[in-house]
Amino acid sequence: MDAFYASVEQLDNPELRGKAIAVGGSSERGVVSAASYEARKYGVKSAMSSVIAKRNCPHLIFVKTRFDRYREISQRIREIFYEYTDLVEPLSLDEAYLDVTENKKGNPSASLIAKEIREKIKEKTGLNASAGISINKFIAKIASDFNKPNGQKTVNPEEVEEFLEVLDIRKFHGVGKVTAEKMYMLGIFTGKDLKTKSLDYLTEKFGKSGSHYYNVVRGIHLSEVKPNRIRKSLGAERTFNENISSEIFMLERLENIAEEIERRLKKSKVAGKTITLKIKYSDFTQQTRSKTVSFYISSKELILENAKELLYQEKMKDSVRLLGISLSNLNTDKSEKKPKEEKEIEVQLKFEF
């Protein structure tokens, strides 16, 4: 979906339509969760601090997050997807992959299916969606960003090679800012530049990721659409209005976080063995401390007990601006891998809401 959280807020509150809004905390320590396209024109974007966002856009309007509402609409959108295929892989509330190689409508055109789905989303929710259509998830993901908002782009099999060769390396999904800068230093600016590098060279420079870059620039990405994504971890974190230096105050915050995690675990009907404590200091450096217990836990008391042990594991180096707890090694990690079936061409859609 296009600027999903912000678009929902503008949908529900007509007074916000056409205005620069940011969904998220408006305090000095707050972080933007989503920004409307009107706000993006001023450089406001998700994960940006509220202070910088307001500096970039003085007339920015902050709106509190309403995740229950976002989940409600997200579910309605997924129901539309299932009218076309059961091979739906949700990535988050606002995006998903669909494999429409074989679809319930018997429509051989993935592009027409994408158009029809986008029109149905607009009709049933009042919101705009964009789509990317191609032979695999990697290319569909990149294509989905090309004609946003409210558009779609198809990369046909015979167009894949040229599409990737002329693409700026920064637009390759999975290539972040640091990796892009490293590639620039090595003279890699486009897909064509990347394609000239051997597998050995890329592995030497980028480790395990080297083989991934070698394959995707050639249009090779064998990851299937997985309709039952297994949750790997579950957690919560809090950024404080003022830095905390007292461990007593930290424990109070951790208790609140543990209570929230317990609620989420019960809702998801999962438990975990590995507890991780996340600490972000006032200088923005970050530290994680983890431990694994011999049995699955899901209660607030046990989560807090282990988080407390991790807190006292070593002395704090500075005051703290954020604390978080996550549980991994969940009891959902026991799925058996099924053998893959070969397909001549997998046509996939990647939707960004």
From TrEMBL:
Cofactor note: Binds 2 magnesium ions per subunit.
GO biological process: DNA repair; DNA-templated DNA replication; error-prone translesion synthesis; SOS response
Binding site for Mg(2+): D94
Keyword DNA damage: yes
Keywords recorded for this protein, A-Z: Cytoplasm, DNA damage, DNA repair, DNA replication, DNA-binding, DNA-directed DNA polymerase, Magnesium, Metal-binding, Mutator protein, Nucleotidyltransferase, Transferase
SUPFAM superfamilies: DNA/RNA polymerases, Lesion bypass DNA polymerase (Y-family), little finger domain
Molecular function terms, GO-annotated: damaged DNA binding; DNA-directed DNA polymerase activity; magnesium ion binding
Keyword flag DNA damage: yes
Pfam families for this protein: IMS, IMS_C, IMS_HHH
Signal peptide location: none
Cofactor (UniProt): Mg(2+)
Active site location: E95
Subcellular location as annotated: Cytoplasm
Catalytic class of the enzyme: transferase
EC number in record: 2.7.7.7
Reactions catalysed: DNA(n) + a 2'-deoxyribonucleoside 5'-triphosphate = DNA(n+1) + diphosphate
InterPro entries assigned to the protein according to its UniProt record, in alphabetical order: DNA/RNA_pol_sf (IPR043502), DNA_pol_Y-fam_lit_finger_sf (IPR036775), DNA_pol_Y-fam_little_finger (IPR017961), DNA_polymerase-Y (IPR050116), DNApol_IV (IPR022880), PolY_HhH_motif (IPR024728), Rev_trsase/Diguanyl_cyclase (IPR043128), UmuC (IPR001126)
GO cellular component: cytosol
Site (Substrate discrimination): residue numbering on this chain: Y5
Sequence ranges assigned to domain UmuC in this UniProt record: 1-176
Quaternary state and interactors: Monomer.
Function: Poorly processive, error-prone DNA polymerase involved in untargeted mutagenesis. Copies undamaged DNA at stalled replication forks, which arise in vivo from mismatched or misaligned primer ends. These misaligned primers can be extended by PolIV. Exhibits no 3'-5' exonuclease (proofreading) activity. May be involved in translesional synthesis, in conjunction with the beta clamp from PolIII.
Family statement drawn from the similarity comment of this UniProt entry: Belongs to the DNA polymerase type-Y family.
Name under which the protein is recorded: DNA polymerase IV
Organism per entry: Salegentibacter mishustinae
